[in-house]
From TrEMBL:
Lineage of source species: Bacteria, Pseudomonadati, Pseudomonadota, Alphaproteobacteria, Rhodospirillales
Source organism of this protein record: Marinibaculum pumilum
Keywords: Signal
Identification of the protein by name: YHS domain-containing (Seleno)protein
UniProt signal peptide: 1-20
Domain of life according to the entry: Bacteria
Length: 153
């Protein structure tokens, strides 16, 4: 009987881990990307503030868009538009940390949106983009489900 209970506990633990949602950077209102339109980074090559009239919820996170067309584009292909590393600072992730971002400090690399803490950190990150992405890509799976506060931020 103890073996059955142990197996059941392990299965439940495994299930809860598999269903755990990655930590996503949201503002005080629970809005992703500080309310900036994630589609506009690709379509307009610029950060554009989203509007409450054009909101989409994805994986429990609210995102705002400048237009209904951009909201529809996001809803159709969210993975194409979501920022890398849950919207946390790409340079911070390369250091094993999760820092907030300023949506005006950004870069698209190979179709993927990277946000940065601020313009100063963006300038540092841009000096070695491939290296920084490789490091962050390696570290992210280890920290993606760890809340930012637990990483000492």
């Amino acid at each position: 009987m103890k073996i059955i209970a142990l197996v059941a506990a392990l299965l439940l633990a495994g299930t809860s881990l598999a269903l755990a949602r990655p930590d996503v950077n949201v503002d005080a209102d629970g809005v992703g990307a500080h309310g900036y339109d994630l589609v506009a980074y690709l379509s307009e090559d610029a950060p554009v503030e989203g509007r409450r009239a054009h909101q989409v919820t994805h994986d429990g996170i609210l995102y705002r868009f400048a237009s209904a067309a951009n909201a529809a584009a996001f809803a159709a292909e969210p993975a194409r538009h979501l920022p890398a590393y849950g919207g946390f600072c790409a340079y911070g992730v390369a250091m094993g940390r999760k820092f907030d971002t300023k949506p005006i400090a950004w870069k698209i690399v190979d179709g993927r949106l990277y946000l940065e803490l601020d313009q100063g950190i963006r300038a540092v990150w841009l000096r070695e983009v491939p290296r920084n992405i490789a490091i962050a890509d390696r570290i992210w799976p280890e920290i993606e489900q760890v809340p930012a506060a637990q990483l000492g931020n």
